[in-house]
Every structure is written in C-alpha cells, then in structure tokens.
Amino acid sequence: MDSDPNYCLSGAKGGKLKPPDLAQTRQALTQSPLSQGLQLIGDRWTVAVLLGAFLGLRRFEAWQSELGIPRHTLTQRLKALTALGLLRQRPYQTKPVRMGYHLTTQGLQLYPQVLMMWVWARRWGAAQMTLPPSLLHKPCGHNFSPHMCCAQCNERVGVNDLTFSLQINPEMATAEAPRQRAPRLAARADGAQGGLGLRVDRWTLLIVSAVLLGCHHFDQLSQVLGIGSSVLARRLAGMEESALLLCQADTNDARRKIYRLAPASRDLFGYIICFSSWASRHHFKQANTIRSVHKGCGHAFVPKVVCSCCGEGLVPWDVGFEGGED
User: Fold this and answer.
1) Whole-angstrom Cα distance, residue 203 to residue 205?
2) How far apart are CA 131 and CA 68, in angstroms?
3) What is the number of alpha carbons within 13 Å of residue 216 lying toward its C-beta?
4) Which one, of 65, 69, 107, lies nearest residue 88 by Cα?
5) Quick one: which of 41, 48, 137 has its CA closest to 81?
6) CA 99, CA 84: separation in Å to the nearest integer?
7) Confidence of residue 8 (pLDDT cuts 50, 70, 90)
8) Do 161 and 152 meet the contact criterion of CB atoms below 8 Å apart?
9) Crossing angle for the helix pair 202-212 and 218-225, nearest 10 degrees?
10) Domains located in the chain, CATH noted
11) Residue closest to 205 by CA, chosen among 45, 319, 39, 322
12) Pick from 221, 181, 179: nearest CA to 201
C-alpha cells in the first residue's frame, strides 16, 4: 500500500520501512470510530447475534439454539443492541404474548459489513452458524458475490487501491467509548466458532488495523494499541498460528521480527473499512481519524457494496437466501 508524503503505511514489499509516528497513530486509532465502535459491538457474541438477525433469526430460543450461547450472555447482548437502537422488540405471538427482535432502520445500516463478513467467513470457514451457501440478488435474478466499490466512481476497491492519512478529531476524544477488556476466547466442545470466528475479535481487528497503518514491530504495536507485553505476545502468536499474520526476521536487526498481513487478514479489510464507515457516518456522526483516499479517482473513499453481476448497490430486502425464520 502506498502512503501519503508524511506517513508510511504497510504493504511495501521488501526494503526498509519508514517508522510511523507512534504517538499520532495511537491517538488516531484510539479515538477512531472503528476502535470505539468495536468496543460497543465488536465482541464475538454481539457480532454473531447481529449476523443471526440479518439471517432471519428473531426469537431468543432460535439464537440460543443456533449459537449455543449462554442464556445470560444472550440476554445481555440483546439488551445492549436494543439500547443502541439496532434492534427492537415486536410481538410475534399474541396468546400468550411472546416478543421477538427485529432490526431497526439503524440496524439495517450495518448491512454492508455483514455482507463483507459473509464473504470472509465463506472463504476462510470461520462462522459458528450455518451461512447460506449463495446469495440471490432479486432485481437482476443472479446469484452473486458482494464486491466493495468506491461510492464516487463505482470502481472495485481493495486494500492496495487506497492511501491513508491520520487526522485527529478532538470531538472523538470526548465521545470516546468506555474501555472494555477483551473477552477470553474459548472454543466450544464441538469446535464451532462465533461471529467472524474465534480467530477474529475486537483486538484482532485493531492489530490488523495497526499493521495496515505501518506498525510492523512488537514495540510499535504495543505502544500504539496500549496492550501489555505478555497479552500482546499471546495475541500475535495466536494470529500467527491461525495464519492471520506472517512473522519474518527483520533483515536490518536480527533481534527484531516484522509482522505482516497474511491473505486471511488482508481479506478482513472490507469488513474493517465498512464497519469504520458505519461507525463514523451513522453512529458517532463524526469525521474519521483515519482518512482514506481512492487512488483511482482521487476522492475521499466511501465504501459501497454492490452485486458482482449487475453492479447495483445492495439492500437487505433485495437479497434472498435459504434458511432463516418465517
């Protein structure tokens, strides 16, 4: 990935990497809508519940059966998503009255990143619930794969097609979400995985983002993310073992290692940037501290997820799939 004149972002192949401004990177990442949004809805169970809502789950029992989630945990996640205005309760049975959960207009705005989640999970096989094997775009009548494009020029965009810069937003400092500890990840006995998969949680996404922003060494990642050395070491080892990071010897300093993105983590880029855009534009309604520009058209990048067959933007009611509740 190319960088702007004052900043080195990852993606360079070989050669000596220009060190990033760690203080600026930490401030921008900490105050970013991405980081603060992930604190709100970035844990694996919340992501799994949201995915289930888009796949048609409405009833408490259906989520619990599909996910194997503890009742108390599911209750807390549904309560939090309702308080955020992403879900609302509606009766689905009158005698006796039983309530179900439905996505709100606000919740439906998460659809682009849900589609990017589907793309990633289908490719890398890390979803707990059974995902539909294909998606049907009703207007054009074709099975399709979601593609991320530039909303300005409609050109398909990947991680190498953008340049990034950092710009601190004081308003985000005052809006900063309360800090949460990352939950310990424990596999179920049947080996199933939740949300984007047990390999991918809030801290994993932030580590991937930090590497994208040019932090390739352990000390850089520790300073930018504010993670203790022992915790970060375990996280990086787990990501390397899960093929989310590549660890290479630093040819300029044999005592150090360089962390780079692997194909699986590079494919998380679509989810990360769509989530960041949602948090910035729809939830916090604040300018992003991590700015991206599309090289192809030169405009500030706004992601748009489209049908691979007809190129039209995708909305939930135009997409069909097998399964879901009636």
Assistant:
1) 5
2) 16
3) 25
4) 107
5) 41
6) 18
7) very low
8) no
9) 120
10) 22-39+107-320 (1.10.10.10)
11) 39
12) 181
Integer angstrom CA distances of residue 94 from 90, 97, 100, 166, 219: 11, 4, 11, 53, 58
Per-residue pLDDT tens digits for 129-146: 677 889 999 999 999 999
pTM here is 0.85
Max avg pLDDT among 79-93, 120-134, 167-181, 294-308: 294-308
User: For residue 235, how far is the Cα from the chain centroid?
Assistant: 17
Structure tokens of 89?
A: 């309760």
Q: How far apart are CA 307 and CA 154, in angstroms?
A: 11
Residue 287's H or E segment, with its range, is: none
Q: What is the dihedral of CA 20, 213, 109, 121, to 10 degrees?
A: -160
* Percentage with pLDDT > 90 across the chain: 65
